[in-house]
């Protein structure tokens, strides 16, 4: 991996502070390195000095990579991921951060909570739209974002079509959120 890295502009991410609170913003520079004949490596440095990232192969395969602590160019671990596994990992990493940030922002609003609501493969709303749920009308809950494959889609319109694996980020009362979850499970 000797190609000179091309550094993207810093990507701002909301990261939990050392004291467990959210709201601190760190700039993480993601380096994009072409790997001739292989694909592209995208990675960034952790506080520990290790680098973590993905290699996207020309044939579409994806590998999660972690560098050795004493040599950021040497690979300690390489885990091949299917598209479904990469999507699940992205959702695990993306949705909780967004929910933590929104929870912190709504902390001083009594009675308002933020929750992740999954669209499971057996959901009656897999392949249907947000408008089909009538969630806001039926529960008073607002869907403020949908996380799909680690990518947040803020302020989805009623025409936004759900796919199994999506995670809805919803804001409302505890009762409303429970009812919203029931709607997604039962229709």
TrEMBL record:
Pfam families, alphabetized: KhtT_N (PF25991), TrkA_C (PF02080)
SUPFAM superfamilies listed in its UniProt record: TrkA C-terminal domain-like
PROSITE patterns documented for this protein: RCK_C
Gene Ontology MF: a single term: monoatomic cation transmembrane transporter activity
Source superkingdom: Bacteria
All copies of domain RCK C-terminal, residue ranges: 102-186
InterPro entries linked to this entry: AAE_transporter, KhtT, KhtT-like_N, RCK_C, RCK_C_sf
A single GO BP: potassium ion transport
Protein's recorded name: Cation:proton antiporter regulatory subunit
Organism listed in the record: Amycolatopsis acidicola
Organism lineage string: Bacteria, Bacillati, Actinomycetota, Actinomycetes, Pseudonocardiales
């Amino acid at each position: 991996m000797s190609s000179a890295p091309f550094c993207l502009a810093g990507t701002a991410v909301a990261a939990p502070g050392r004291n467990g609170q959210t709201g601190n913003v760190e700039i993480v520079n993601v380096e994009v390195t072409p790997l001739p004949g292989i694909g592209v490596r995208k990675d960034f440095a952790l506080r520990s000095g290790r680098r973590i990232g993905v290699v996207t192969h020309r044939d579409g395969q994806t590998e999660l990579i972690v560098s050795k602590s004493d040599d950021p160019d040497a690979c300690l671990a390489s885990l091949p991921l299917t598209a479904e596994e990469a999507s699940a990992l992205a959702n695990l990493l993306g949705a909780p951060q967004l929910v933590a940030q929104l929870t912190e922002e709504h902390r001083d609003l009594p009675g308002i909570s933020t929750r992740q609501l999954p669209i499971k493969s057996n959901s009656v709303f897999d392949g249907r739209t947000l408008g089909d749920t009538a969630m806001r009308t039926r529960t008073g809950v607002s869907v403020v974002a949908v996380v799909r494959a680690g990518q947040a889609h803020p302020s989805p319109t009623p025409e936004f079509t759900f796919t199994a694996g999506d995670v809805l980020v919803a804001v409302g009362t505890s009762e409303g959120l429970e009812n919203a979850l029931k709607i997604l499970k039962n229709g």
